[in-house]
Amino acid sequence: xxxxxxxxxxLRRTVTWxxxxxxxxxxxxxxxxxxxxxxxxxxxxxxxGSNENTNGLLRQYFPKSTDLSVHSAxxxxxxxxxxxxxxxxxxxxRTPADLFAALLASQSHPSLR
Length: 113
What we know:
- This protein is mainly α.
- The chain contains five helices and two strands, in the order H-E-H-E-H-H-H.
- The protein has helices at residues 2-6, 26-33, 49-58, 73-84, 96-105, and strands at residues 14-17, 36-39.
- It has a two-stranded parallel ribbon.
């Protein structure tokens, strides 16, 4: 929740999640952050294309069903940084980190209004 609250309010209006049990605290998160949380329909992976792609990238570091609590925050942050600095074909070979930094630096981007 802390990280979500660090985003500018226009960038945390809504979040769309999968149907997993790890999302059970969604009401608590909404109350603490003001972010409205929506869920994809079960068995509809096309509704969460970015999520499915990111899961595939994460599997290169953590096999399916890995207990992430056994990994340190430092290790998880390292993987996060590697993935955010990895160029993506769908982003025109740019990185998520570069595009996000450009978005935050933009005063006139529609999603920041």
